[in-house]
Amino acid sequence: MNDFSNLLASVTKRAKASVIRELLKYGSKPGLISFAGGMPDPTEFPCKDIAELTNKVLTTRPNVALQYGETEGQADFKQEIIKLIKEEENIDVAPDQLLITSASQQSLDFVSKAFIDVGDCIIVGKPTYLGALQAFVSYGADMIGVESDDYGITVESLAQQLENLKKQGKVCKFIYVVPDFQNPTGTTIPTERRKQILELAKQYGTLILEDSPYRKIRFEGKDETTFYALDKGEGNVITMFTFSKTFVPGFRLGYIIAHKDLIRKFVVLKQSMDLCTSPICQSVTSEFLKAGKLAPHVAKIVKVYSQKRDAMIKALETYMPSGVTWTHPQGGLFLWVVLPENIDAEKMLPTALEHSVAYVIGSAFYPDNSGHNTMRLNFSYASFKDIDEGIKRLAETIKNYKA
User: Fold this and answer.
1) Which of 16, 86, 142, 238 has the highest CB neighbour number within 10 Å of its CB?
2) What is the distance of C-alpha 161 from the center of its chain?
3) pLDDT of amino acid 292
């Protein structure tokens, strides 16, 4: 094959492979226990319900389920989501403020496309969701990292970075946050801090991009108020949700709520991407919501994932050497491990894989490639037996690590 690299667009050259997706290639290795992917427990998928509802949809309205659909999303599905948002968040959303997407990753892509020109500044947490970093860097964003603590990004660091940009005559296009059970750390931003962050966004004339895939997977404590609700319809917040963690990831279904003028721009961008989100997946999920099956399903997985989190924390407490610390998330799918400064999680990964255990290196979640002594662990996918054995293998790898 001829070398066509000189023909590639700059966006292709900027794009980076996902560390997580690359690690999944090791999934077929016999005996490997992986804490790498952010995958739900497949044994909890509502397979029987999906089979029955798919048959119903194909029997009663195949012309809708199997045909092209509206870019904005199916009207009946949108109405079910509008009811869901009202019931769960007490937020009133009009149909023209809502767009159905092919999960949150597509939302990240067209928000990036809508706002980011090469060299534009955006603010992200240190650390933050790897998939977002990939989307932002592919459009040439200059990502400014702000410090985080046990309660998410800090107001002080955010204020300092916004002021620095202002002094340089630069504009922050948006502040990206995963406020509930953050990927990768599992931390949650308290409501009072959210109010302060939102006020800073208003003060400096920027937007909040709120990514909320894990919000309903809460094990303990009380719900914090969404940035969208705090904004009270003023148009300063764009919020993304997905069904990948609360229903099934294979349907690739999500939705985004924002001011109607922004939604219209996103619709136009989506038209050039995939025309519409899968109509049959929308139809089946709509029936799932109409039947009132989502809430009991979420309650079921919350119970299981809570037990798995507890099992992982117990194993960490049992096997890990001194100097290793970890977060205690109140929900979600992940916890964050901090190793002693002399241990590089990236350099240690090949040895861990030799010992048949996998994790995601923490530096992949930093815009500046820092955090080399950190790692993300997923507790939702592995079995209880594998959680214990996998943490035991990981602890032995850490104990025997030679810097």
Assistant:
1) 238
2) 24
3) 98
Side-chain-facing half-sphere of 98: CA atoms under 13 Å = 24
Instruction: Work out the number of other CB atoms within 10 angstroms of the CB of residue 71.
Output: 19
Q: Within 220-328, where are the H helices?
A: 227-231, 260-271, 279-290, 294-319
pLDDT (0 to 100) of residue 13? 65
pLDDT value at residue 29: 74
Does residue 384 register a pLDDT over 70? yes
| pTM confidence score | 0.94
CA distance 73 to 210: 21
Give the three-class secondary structure for 45.
Answer: coil
CATH number 3.40.50.20 given to 9-45+296-399: no
Confidence (pLDDT) at 12: 67
List, in sequence order, every beta strand (DSSP E) within 164-277.
172-177, 207-211, 237-242, 254-257
Kindly list the domain boundaries of the chain, sorted by start residue. Answer: 9-45+296-399, 66-290
Q: Are 318 and 340 in contact (CB under 8 A)?
A: no
Q: What is the token pair recorded at 248?
A: 């099934």
Of residues 228 and 17, more confidence is placed in: 228
Answer for the pair 387, 318: CB distance below 8 angstroms, yes or no. Answer: no
Structural contact between residues 238 and 258, judged by C-beta atoms closer than 8 angstroms: yes
Q: Which of 11, 309, 255 is nearest to 136 (CA)?
A: 11
| pLDDT range class, residue 18, cuts 50, 70, 90 | low
Question: Can you list the pairs that 87-92 forms with residues at least 24 positions away whose Cβ atoms lie under 8 Å?
Answer: 88/216, 89/226, 89/228, 89/229, 90/229, 91/226, 91/228, 91/229, 91/257
CA angle 252, 138, 205 (to 5 degrees): 90
Residue 327 CA to residue 321 CA, distance in Å, equals 16
CATH number of 66-290: 3.40.640.10
Total length of the chain: 403
Q: Is the dihedral of CA 34, 39, 44, 45 positive or negative?
A: negative
The whole-number pLDDT of residue 28 equals 60
Contacts of 226 (CB under 8 A, 6+ apart): 89, 91, 179, 210, 212, 215, 239
pLDDT digit string, tens, across residues 84-124: 999 999 999 999 999 999 999 999 999 999 999 999 999 99
Name 285's Cβ contacts closer than 8 Å, sequence gap at least 6.
77, 243, 247, 251, 253
Q: In b/e form, how buried is each residue of 166-182, taking b as 16+ CB within 10 angstroms?
A: eeeeeebbbbbbbbbbb
